[in-house]
Amino acid sequence: MRGTLLASTPIATPSKERALSESRLTAGAAPAIDLHATQRRTLTTLSVSQVFGSIGVGVGFAVSALVATSLSSSPAQAGLLQGLSVVGTVAATILLARVSASRGRRPGLAIGYVVAAAGALVAVVGITSHQFLVFLVGGALFSVANATTLQSRFAAADLAPPHGRAAGIALVLWMSTVGAVVGPNLATWGGDVLARRGIDPWAGAYVTAAVAFALAGLVIAVRLRPDPLLLARTAFEHDPGAEAAAPQGQQLRSGARAIARSQQARLALTAMAVAHAAMIGVMAWTPVHMAGSMAGSAHLHGAHAGGTSSQAAIGYVLSAHLAGMYAFSPVMGWAARRLGERTVVVLGLGLTIVSVAGIAQLPGSAGLGLGIGLAGLGIGWSAVLVAGSSLLTSSVAIEQRAASQGVADSAVWVASGLSQVASGWVLGTFGYAWLAVAFLVLVAPVTLWAATGARPRPQR
Fold it and tell me: CB neighbours of 292 closer than 8 A, spacing ≥ 6?
């Protein structure tokens, strides 16, 4: 039965939405539900699951390339893992969006973590049996965790009032900082534990990831009740002018139409896609740029081994980048509330341009400068993702939100895959500086559009 809000002011659709002043919902004879308390429980549940999920992702980030290189006969074959991971993430994003749109957030996120845990165990089989193809299958399933952890941020916005959406999204993203810091270290710890029992240490790392994903899925399955998306559909007033919820199998098409009808949603999707493409394209190839420059310098000065110092410098630069991506998320949520979502998107794109322009001037040996540049690139990405996700959510009706969010994340991951392919060619053909210039050309028009385009009409 459709719920009735116990207040005189209804919660309207994105175009007319007002602040969430209502706090309780009744459904027939069921006890009243405190929406504010439910939102707090939802954020706590998502935060805990995000810690476990991001730890699993961090473990894979630390060892996947090493394992693929060891099991394959060439670096080119090892690169198949990256391609399959992108394909697996896009496919998982579409699947999770369809499940969430029809059945709610809880089953979608829980299924994602279960599949990722299964993928980690398949990877263990591939490692212990020295079967590269089996490991690739496991890696593709493992990549479902990327889509799941990123989709979790939207569940934080389902029951949030308009002024609190960006903060909820930012909180969930901020918890990924734990995985970025702890995950790689747990990969070493898990490997050492199993190595003492005669098991390949890399297999131990993936066992650690499987446990982390299983715990994340368990937290979601047990604690994410009531389902925030299903409750939001009941609590929030339906927009008579919005497209009705699409039947099973047509949700993504409905979500794409909802984005196409809204300039704000189109801007949010485009901004997130180009910011992610620039971040991934530059970040992925900076270690190659640094290693090549340092190796050349060592050879020029007669050094026999600069490998350790080179790896340390690369590690520091990537750590600065990861810190920029996640550690400042709460600041972005606060800024989106105070300055407006679109303003923060513009600022994030602007910081991306400044960071990439600075990086283009630096040699690979400039570890400090590259670290600062990549940290700025990560902060710009964080600003665009937090504010863009909130703007997208605010721009489509509740009936199409889950599907629209899935379409947007699919576009982001496709942009990521294309960026990695294209940036590798640009780097090999023209060099690192021109790689940065290429992303300047990509981001600048979107920044201009965001800064000068039509603004949302004031709400009455």
Answer: 364
**Distance (Å, whole) CA 134 – CA 426:** 32
Phi, psi dihedrals of residue 5, rounded to the nearest 5°: -75, 135
Residues in the chain: 460
Angle 287-382-138 (CA atoms, 0-180°, nearest 5)?
60
The strand ranges marked E within 162-209 are: none
Please name the residues in contact with 84: beta carbons below 8 A apart, sequence gap of 6 or more: 136, 139, 140, 143
Q: Which residue bears the tokens 């702890």?
A: 182
Helix ranges (H only) for 301-366 are: 307-326, 329-339, 341-359
Question: For residue range 375-403, what is the model confidence (pLDDT) as tens digits?
Answer: 999 999 999 999 999 999 999 998 899 99
Q: Cα separation of 52 and 49, whole Å?
A: 5
Tokens of 390: 């909130």
Q: 14-23, 105-114, 219-228, 436-445 — which is least confidently predicted? A: 14-23
DSSP letter for each residue of 79-117? THHHHHHHHHHHHHHHHHHHHHHHH-HHHHHHHHHHHHH
Strands in 203-317 per DSSP E: none
Measured in Å, how far apart are the chain's first and last C-alpha atoms? 30
- For 285-332, what is each residue's pLDDT tens digit? 888 788 776 655 544 444 444 444 566 677 788 778 888 999 999 999
Q: Which residue has the higher pLDDT, 5 or 424?
A: 424
Amino acid at 15: S
DSSP 430-454: H-HHHHHHHHHHHHHHHHHHHHHSP
Other beta carbons within 10 angstroms of residue 422's beta carbon come to 16
CB pairs under 8 A, 24+ apart, for 196-203?
199/128, 200/127, 200/128, 202/63, 202/66, 202/67, 202/70, 202/127, 203/124, 203/127, 203/128
Written as one letter, the residue type at 145 is: A
Q: Are 402 and 101 in contact (CB under 8 A)?
A: yes
CA distances from 98 to 94, 246, 296, 385 (A): 6, 10, 50, 22
pTM (2 d.p.): 0.82
When pLDDT is cut at 50, 70 and 90, the band that residue 191 belongs to is low
